Amino acid sequence: MVFILLGPPGVGKGTQASQLIDSFGGEHISTGDLLREACRNQTGLGLKAQKYMNDGDLVPDSLILDLIRDHLGSIDPKAKILFDGFPRTIPQADGLDDVLLNVSRRVDKVVLFEAPEHELIKRLSGRRSCANCGTIFNVYFSPPKIEDECERCGEVLVHRSDDNPDTVRHRLRVYQSQTAQLVEHYSSHSAVLKRVSAMHSVDEVQSAFRAAIGMD
């Protein structure tokens, strides 16, 4: 099974994907996480992508698709896959279809998580990330027990440059102008796209998410 999780930055796609994977297994593919890892390792792709990410812009489709193609080649071909925030453009969606076709797979369900802009800005501006293990906290909703310290590995938490309020607003504008086109794209396949409100507790959203993909 291949699932795509759509929605603006800060809507909670990663949290919901992680909970589902913890319960049912599978592979949670976040291109953002993969890109940040590539940047930390200063790979060729990472160096090219760094400027786009710092400015809150989308990384070019060719770079993203190369990253996805390489990653798919390293995982179990029968594993459940959750694409978190990918694809982000129509060309990426078409490219993903081609990549999946090459490994005899296809997109089974697309879930759109929705929340108003003011809520997204609050969530993102309060986010703190662990550069070591990738765990994410939020000073408003899920703060760490010790301020600025990761509960999992003890490393210092950071406020990512792309999570400051001005960059967040820019990221949301980019989403609306480019990524939101995917809603119409996948809506043309009524049996594929499902909508889930992210304005509830994490557990309530998880229940709605599982129902949407038939895993409740």
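[next item in queue]
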Amino acid sequence: MATTSTPGYNPTPEEIEFETRAEISSIWTGGRLFIGMYAFLLASLAFSYFYLRSSNNGDLWRPNHVTAPTSFGWAISSLVVLAALLAIYGQWRLRQGRVLDWEVAGWLSFGAALSALGVQIWQLTVLPFYPGSSGYASCFIGWGVVSIMTISILVYWTETTLARSIRMRSEQGAGAQLSGSAEGRLFRAGVESCTYFMGFAALSFIVFTALFYLL
């Protein structure tokens, strides 16, 4: 952490510790607020789904029980859940002081999320219906857009966290991620927030996969 100072002024250890704790608290709070805001986005999509399904005006909710390609849906959901499980496992190993295990799990999680993104984009090119052709189609296209956005966030957040870990190791040496320094503590707080969001994303994919492919 870079601490700004004016000429002739050196911050005391207490002041540095206060600033570090404030930054860690900001990361913790920001991560949870982000999950909360994202939950509202998903809630609006769920409301549209259940409203259109219950009203079913003109029997146009789901004509002929049309369904998006099921194999694609389960593949996407499975890959996102796998990415989240790998991230959770990696964080557990990081807490035990196994930085290499965390990085390996992180790159595997990144690969799973990136694969899910590719499958999701591909799925939108082979849909058996057009956007707006039914209530189900409209909601599914909305979910497809949200899905791409969510997985893109997972990919970006995971990759930048891994890149930060590599940079810390190259600049400060092995074990910098576990140090009690301000940067090490901030890094671990960032890993925790990333992992929490991935777990939230996995749960949301399970729920919406059930809505669009099972119900």
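[queue empty]
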